[in-house]
Structures
1.
Amino acid sequence: MTETVKVEAVAVPTAFDGEGTWEIVRVDYAVKQLTVVAQDATSDASLRVRFDDVVAYRVMDERDLGEYWPACSLPNGWVFSIQSGGWLSQESARPGSCVGLFYGDVHEYLVAGFTDCVSVLCTGEPQVEFDRGNG
């Protein structure tokens, strides 16, 4: 059995951290741009985060990402900048991976939903928008 390396992460400040039960409801990808939308389970509020210059992304159930917890748990934030130990670290060490060769300064982010999570490798900074909805 392989030892799990724990992730080190820093929360990316958003307009509505620490409140709500955010569930990822939509993931849209179009030529190097990814938009992740999360809805609050108790209101009409939604958060939208856009990533530019996307190298790769994956959507996984939170239970399959044990190395990210507790560093990337919802009470600490919603969007996290992964400093070490995550998917980018795995790709950088994987034979045959070209992530570090072709794309320049790649960063990893994790969007943590209540059930699903989105890992993003990109060279741009995330842009987060908050919509309070009708309530």
2.
Amino acid sequence: VTVPPHIPEDKIRADLLSIYGIEIGGGLGPLQGQVWRIGLMGYASNPTNVLFCLGALEEALARQNAQITKGVAVSAALKALA
């Protein structure tokens, strides 16, 4: 996932972990600070966890005043899961 411009990617990761118990990875090497690595595999890749992760990421981004439209990611995921 590409980090939006002017958003402190490490702050988002810290918020996700401390508030929601979600740990995501930051970019490595030349992608450090530019992307997040989100791994939902196996048992964790159920609809509940996917929607929770997307909603938490939206909330964390909104708290940092990211230029996003809240609800879009969760709505798109619900549509894809239907």
3.
Amino acid sequence: MKKKDIVKSKIIFNDIIKKGVRNTNKYFVICSVIKDEDIPKFGIAVGKKLGNAVTRNKIKRQLRNIIDNNKILFKNNHNYIIIVKKEILILSFQEMNNELVKLIKKGDINEK
């Protein structure tokens, strides 16, 4: 994921979480908000309860890779925040990929 694809502002990040449309499963919460720009932007939230910095950074790297490989599934006029739940620790990379893709395809996050 390139720097231009990342939600950088803390205010915008929190605004997406508060006002966005949510879609959840056992492993992720995806919040999305419609915006004016044509490039989708992403944020990843991994809490300290998931483990030490090495574990959290590994999960973020894997999620960025999954997002890059599946950018076609995301609408261009949305901002997304992906919040990771603790249950993610038992998944392999392929299972994580499948669960996130299922969640993206499942919900109305792209429609609202």
